[in-house]
């Protein structure tokens, strides 16, 4: 009996190894939950080119925007768990379960985390007309005039909104939230002085910071950015505030672990192969193991759930 069990285990291992070695046998679809031309789409296409060279199979980028990324996520969750359809998405995916009243999938159970591709930070920026040239000055101003300072975001429950609420909770200040429909209109509102403060991706504000049209007060990473070395990390200013974003890959749950391992290995290699492009996009390469990414995802699910609860953000339909 023991010999039979060993034989079955060996056969299973050999079959799994062979499965991993022969994947992929046909094109791999990378589903993007946002419109073509955005940061996630750009990353997917850059990775896809490298993966196609390695796998000798086409890697198809499939943009399926809408419903805060939930349309794309549902498509992948309900796809066959064979490794030929994967989701590339951002840390916003860890926000949706606590933000929406009902989702057509379970983010924690219906996906297999493959790898965290990148880590990213955002920049706390202000319109120069605001009389605050540092984080402490912004806090002092907001405390002296509760509700007089406003901050913009890209929508209810979007990362800039949650960062703004977390900043308010951490510092004990009161700022008025003004939502916009995307990075572009928010950036225009900042430049025009319609809103005074916002947490923005580096790519959307770097040129305006360099020209002096916007003022950078701090970055949300633990240390300073190599792109903006003169701008302190917010944590440096005495405020215990640090939150980094990510971009990562998810497969459908029950995808064979051998295929997930192959995806992780080659996608990690691919992201480091394009690492010279990443700083300009506001990213740093990570290429974590599946286990590390799963732990990060669980932690972020809990973090964002707490922010949404503490800020009293209403559930969205």
Give a written overview of the molecule.
Residues 4-20 have low confidence and may be disordered. The radius of gyration is 21 Å and the shape is globular. Helices cover 43% and strands 19% of the residues. The protein is α/β, with parallel strands linked by helices. The protein has helices at residues 2-22, 39-55, 70-77, 96-99, 135-144, 159-171, 183-192, 202-211, 257-273, 278-281, 290-311; strands spanning 28-32, 59-63, 85-90, 111-120, 122-126, 150-153, 176-179, 197-201, 215-219, 245-252, 283-285. It folds into 2 domains: 23-119 and 246-311, Bordetella uptake gene, domain 1 (D-Maltodextrin-Binding Protein, domain 2, 3-Layer(aba) Sandwich); 122-237, Periplasmic binding protein-like II (D-Maltodextrin-Binding Protein, domain 2, 3-Layer(aba) Sandwich), CATH 3.40.190. Helix 1 packs parallel to helix 9, helix 2 (39-55) crosses helix 9 (257-273) and helix 6 packs across helix 11.
Estimate the helix proportion, in percent.
40-55%
Helix tally equals 11
Structural classification: alpha/beta
- Looking at the structure, the CATH topology of the largest domain is D-Maltodextrin-Binding Protein, domain 2
Instruction: Round the Cα radius of gyration to an integer and report it.
Output: 21 Å
Number of separate domains:
2
- Say which CATH homologous superfamily of the largest domain is assigned: Bordetella uptake gene, domain 1
Oligomer: single chain
Biggest beta sheet summary: 6 strands, mixed
Number of strands: 11
**Regarding CATH, which class of the largest domain?**
Alpha Beta
State mean pLDDT (0 to 100 scale): 91
Low-confidence stretches: 4-20
Strand-residue fraction? 15-25%
Elements, N to C (H/E): HEHEHEHEEHEHEHEHEEHHEH
Q: In CATH terms, what is the architecture of the largest domain?
A: 3-Layer(aba) Sandwich
Gross morphology = globular
């Amino acid at each position: 009996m023991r010999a039979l069990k060993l034989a079955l285990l060996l056969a299973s291992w050999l079959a799994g190894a062979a499965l991993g070695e022969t994947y992929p046998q046909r094109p791999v679809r990378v589903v993007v939950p946002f419109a073509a031309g955005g940061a996630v789409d750009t990353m997917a296409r850059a990775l896809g080119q490298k993966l196609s060279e390695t796998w000798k199979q086409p890697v198809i980028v499939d943009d399926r925007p809408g419903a805060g990324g939930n349309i794309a996520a549902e498509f992948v969750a309900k796809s066959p768990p064979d490794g030929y359809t994967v989701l590339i998405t951002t840390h916003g995916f860890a926000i949706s379960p606590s933000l929406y009243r009902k989702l057509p999938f379970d983010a924690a159970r219906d996906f297999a985390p493959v790898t965290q591709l990148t880590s990213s930070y955002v920049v706390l920026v202000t319109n120069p007309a605001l009389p605050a040239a540092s984080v402490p000055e912004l806090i002092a101003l907001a405390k002296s005039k509760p509700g007089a300072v406003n901050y913009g975001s890209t929508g209810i429950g979007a990362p800039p909104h949650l960062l703004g609420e977390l900043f308010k909770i951490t510092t004990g200040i009161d700022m008025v939230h003004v939502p916009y429909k995307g990075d572009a209109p928010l950036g225009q509102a900042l430049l025009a002085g319609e809103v005074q403060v916002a947490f923005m991706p580096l790519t959307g504000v770097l040129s305006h910071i360099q020209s002096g049209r916007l003022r950078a007060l701090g970055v949300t990473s633990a240390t300073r950015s190599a792109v903006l070395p003169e701008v302190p990390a917010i944590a440096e200013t005495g405020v215990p505030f640090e939150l980094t974003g990510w971009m990562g890959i998810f497969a459908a749950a029950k995808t064979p672990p051998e295929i997930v391992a192959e995806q992780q290995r080659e996608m990690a290699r691919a992201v480091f192969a394009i690492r010279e492009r990443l700083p300009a996009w506001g990213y740093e390469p990570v290429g974590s193991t599946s286990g590390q990414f799963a732990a990060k995802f669980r932690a972020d699910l809990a973090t964002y759930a707490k922010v949404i609860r503490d800020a009293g953000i209403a559930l969205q339909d």
